[in-house]
Design a protein that fits this description.
Helix content is about 30%, strand content about 25%. By secondary structure, the chain is an alpha+beta fold. It folds into three domains: about 55 residues, Arc Repressor Mutant, subunit A; about 210 residues, Bira Bifunctional Protein, Domain 2 (BirA Bifunctional Protein, domain 2, 2-Layer Sandwich), CATH 3.30.930.10; about 45 residues, SH3 type barrels, CATH 2.30.30.100.
């Protein structure tokens, strides 16, 4: 661990508290000059480190900057073994993590980014991921003896964990549009992309990459014109340490569900309760064209049960739907 990382860990652990240069030097077993250099290095990376005469240095309580040290402050003890990587910018956290997965990286590897230049959503869509306004992460999983059809369960777990994290950190009620989109006040604020790789030996899952993108704040220059009417953000203003708390809350919640994957009732009831489609008229976007329907239920395998206008009932294991606009 570099000196600046050790300093950041100390300041994050005691966020808002002042440490003199002498105290820091003694705690980290470095020189006062090294302390000064580490402070300047962190400031150049965007960390708001205050310096007050006769009091020393502190990380501003209002700082909202992603960091490994900041995330770890909020992780449950059961999740201390998660291997977290932090990058300021990447094309896609899923793409970057897939490279690590193919190289044999173990389950529990996490990549968190401040920005994605080619963020991806379902069906090849672009996921707008500007700097400083959102949280973008990918988690590597290697479930044992899982079949490909079970991958949707992880998406369901992730959707519930994301909702609960947002509700805990930002105190905002979140709804889920089947199967993987997160909404607040009818605006999409986040999405989940689950990508699976199969084992050719027994046709079970070799690994799964679970990607999550959340719009915590409105982008500084606003959303692109194509997204302005449908995209939203969780909060109007910066929340002190909001990003680190949100990442940790999601990982804590998701891993708790994942460790008890056989007890689907733990997250399915929460998923159904947050569904924004059940009981509503929807349009199923099938290869044969759009088909009006009513969303009846979400079954125990996380499939959407729909009824078409002719009375026919179908269970959808995947696909795309849109919610019909209410009249009046």
């Amino acid at each position: 661990m570099q000196t600046k990382e050790k300093l950041l860990f100390l300041l994050e652990e005691h966020r808002g508290s002042f440490f003199s240069g002498e105290e820091i030097a003694e705690k980290l077993s470095i020189s006062r000059t090294a302390v000064w250099k580490a402070v300047n290095a962190l400031r150049s990376e965007g960390y708001n480190i205050e310096a007050v005469s006769r009091r020393g240095y502190r990380l501003s309580p209002d700082t909202d900057k992603l960091s490994i040290q900041g995330i770890r402050q909020w992780l449950d003890s059961k999740n201390e073994a998660l291997l977290i990587h932090m990058v300021d910018q990447t094309e896609s956290t899923n793409t970057l993590l897939r490279e690590k997965a193919n190289a044999g990286e173990a389950e529990g590897c996490v990549i968190v980014a401040n920005q994605q230049t080619q963020g991806r959503g379902r069906r090849g869509r672009h996921f707008f991921s500007p700097p400083d306004s959102g949280v973008y992460l990918s988690l590597l999983l290697r479930p044992k003896q899982w079949l490909p059809k079970q991958a949707v369960m992880l998406t369901t777990m992730a959707a519930v964990a994301a909702c609960e994290a947002i509700e805990a950190v930002a105190e905002q009620a979140v709804q889920i549009k089947w199967v993987n989109d997160l909404y607040i006040n009818d605006k999409k604020v986040g999405g989940i992309l689950t990508e699976a790789s199969m084992s050719l030996e027994d046709e079970t899952l070799d690994h799964i990459i679970l990607g999550l993108g959340i719009n915590l704040y409105l982008p500084q220059e606003g959303f692109p014109e194509t997204l302005a009417s449908v995209a939203g953000a969780i909060l109007p203003d910066k929340l002190p340490n909001g990003k680190n708390r949100l990442v940790a809350a999601f990982l804590n919640g998701f891993m708790a569900y994942y460790r008890q994957d056989s007890q689907t009732s733990l997250y399915l009831s929460a998923y159904r309760a947050r569904s924004m489609v059940l009981g509503r008229p929807i349009t199923v976007l099938s290869p044969q064209g759009p088909k009006p329907a009513i969303a009846l239920d979400i079954d125990n395998e996380c499939h959407l049960v729909v009824q078409y206008e002719d009375g026919h009932i179908e269970t959808l294991s995947s696909g795309e739907i849109s919610i019909q606009t209410r009249k009046g």
